[in-house]
Structures are given as C-alpha cells and as structure tokens.
Design goal:
This protein is an alpha+beta fold. About 35% of the residues lie in helices and about 25% in strands. The chain is built from 9 helices and 17 strands. The strands form 5 sheets. Strands 1-2-6-7-10-15-16-17 form an 8-stranded antiparallel sheet, covered by helices on one side. A 3-stranded antiparallel sheet has the order 3-5-4, covered by helices on one side. Strand 4 and strand 5 form a beta hairpin. The longest helix has 22 residues.
C-alpha cells in the first residue's frame, strides 16, 4: 500500500512540474543599420528580458562586423576593409582575425571556383557600383578591362596578421561572403549565451537553429517574377541563402543590370534569375549562392558536393533545376 502511494505521489509531482513548465515565448526584432539591408531576428525564449539581452548582444556583434567589412566608410579606431583598401599597397596593415580569416576564405573560394567567386575583384565591382548608384549609363569596355587588370588574389598577401597589396589599384569587396560570415559568427555568439531556437535573416541570408514549438522552420524562396513565393523549405540547424537578379539592379535603355558580375564577361551574369543554397556552413552558403550563379548547373553540382550542400536554380527562362537532395526540404 505504501509503494502504491509513492507511485501515485510521483505521478502527481511530475504532472505538477510539467504543468508549471513555462512554454517559451516568441519574440522578434528588426535591425536596419547593419550590412545595408533589413535584418530580422526571431527567437523562442523563456522571457522577454532574456530575448532583449540576446538581441542587444546580437546587434552589437553584427554592427561590429558591419564596420569591419565596410568597403565604403572608415571609422575612428577601426582597421576595416575601407582602410585596408586605401593603405595596404603602401605598407602592411595589422588586421583583426575577422579580416584575415575572411580574406583567406576568399582565396580558398576563388581557387575552388576557378576564379568565378573573387572577393579581390573590387576594382571591377566598384565600376558597376558607381553606375548602379547613378542609375544610368553602362561602363565602357576599356573601363572594365582596365579594372580587370587588378583582380588577382596573388596580389594580396596575408602574413602574421598583416595584410598588404602589391597593386595600388586592387580593391577587396567581400560582399559575397560578409553576410554569411556575420551569420556564422552570430550563431556562435547566440550559442554561447544559450539561445537555441531562432531564425536570423540578414537580407536573405537565413540561418535557423533548433525548432519552433510547432515544428521545423519554414523559409520561403521568392518567385523572381513577382512578390509571391516560388517554394518553401522546412529546415533546422542550417542556412538558406538566395542570390537573385532582382535584389540589386538598375535599368538603362530598357535593360536590367544587376549586381552579380561575371568576371569572364565583365557584365552581369545572365544565365539565372536566382540560385538558392541550403548548407550548414553559413559562410559557404553565402559564397555558393553567388558562385553557382556564375557557373553551369553541371559545374555547380560538383561544387555543391564538396560542401555537402543542396541548391535550386531558377534559369533565365523560368525553368527550375534542383540538386539531387533539394526536394527533401520542400
């Protein structure tokens, strides 16, 4: 009789503790001052105070990385890429690990993609950026070819934490890596402070961790021809990144000129409307979405295998091509 009473008491105790356990709440915030885009952070936390502390730490980290990777503005007391671009041809510049590691990653991706993805081609990208900002005109072939003479990764040297250029006209532009690398470092920070179930979307670079109470996170892939969705993927503990011709562009004389430049032609790539990549490595997901935009499907498929990633290509004619494992997420 005493044993039965103990069993009943244990059941009641478990029920009481289960009933009193607080269901995590859903909290969200939007930042508009990092990486020149809109950043959304959604997390499930035990309290609003816990979320606010996490959001504050996250914002501080993203703002720090934004300033380090900024190629247009310099900041007092910060050795960032804008400063390095201006001074590294005169003398070696002592740089942070965040700078040297992303530049080394840039060298690695340039090698792995046969030069398609080249963060050292800022001289070419800046020419197009100027015309895109003006919203009119097209660079001359001479202008582009002159810039293209200063894009080799061999002209950038990383040694003992210092960066130097052997070409005063070379410029670094880590646009194809920065948001992915920021997402990777942000995920490390959130993990350290105990935030497990969240979605971080830095301008289309989506990282998800854990789950929502109702299941997997769902990430939409935009239809390039409209504001609706082409498809949705259900994911956890991975990144989903899309590069598209509709994200940053201008129109001139009836033609669209977007921001993803094919260094073989020196003009915006015209084979795809968008490429979406799913990969656990945030930096690789960002890099691959751009690299695959500049390759044939066959070349891109081989590159995906190196990183254990999947992809969806939407071609210029609207045809969709999926890598072998992409459909399992839909």
């Amino acid at each position: 009789m005493k044993r039965s009473a103990c069993v009943i008491l244990s059941i009641i105790t478990v029920f009481i503790f289960t009933a009193c356990a607080k269901t995590p709440g859903r909290y969200s915030i939007t930042f508009t001052d990092v990486f020149d885009t809109v950043t959304d952070f959604i997390a499930y936390c035990g309290s609003e105070d816990e979320f606010n502390k996490a959001a504050e730490a996250l914002h501080g980290e993203l703002l720090r990385l934004h300033r380090l990777y900024d190629i247009y503005n310099e900041y007092d007391g910060i050795v960032n890429l804008a400063y390095i671009n201006r001074t590294a041809s005169a003398a070696p510049v002592a740089a942070t690990d965040e700078i040297t590691s992303i530049l080394q990653a840039g060298k690695d991706f340039c090698r792995d993609t046969g030069g398609r993805l080249n963060v050292f081609a800022g001289a070419v990208f800046s020419v197009w950026h100027g015309y895109r900002e003006a919203g009119t005109g097209v660079p001359s072939d001479n202008e582009l070819e002159e810039a293209a003479a200063h894009v080799s990764p061999e002209l950038v040297h990383i040694s003992g934490g210092a960066v130097s250029f052997t070409d005063g006209n070379l410029k670094i532009d880590v646009g194809a890596l920065a948001k992915g690398e920021a997402s990777r470092r942000a995920a490390l920070l959130l993990g350290k402070i105990g935030i497990k179930d969240y979605m971080l979307n830095i301008g289309g670079n989506v990282t998800v961790s854990g789950r929502k109470p109702e299941g997997l996170w769902k990430v939409g892939v935009q239809d390039p021809d409209g504001e609706g969705l082409f498809t949705k993927v259900s994911v956890s503990d991975t990144s989903v990144v899309t590069s598209g011709d509709y994200q940053r562009f201008y129109e001139y004389n009836g033609r669209k000129y977007h921001h993803i430049i094919d260094l073989q032609t020196l003009y915006p790539a015209d084979g795809y409307r968008s490429v979406t990549v799913i990969c656990e490595n945030q930096q690789a997901a960002d890099a691959l979405s751009t690299a695959l935009f500049l390759m044939s499907v066959e070349e891109g498929t081989e590159l995906l295998k190196r990183y254990g990633a999947e992809a969806l290509w939407i071609k210029a004619d609207g045809q969709a091509v999926r890598s072998e494992g992409f459909s399992r997420y839909e």
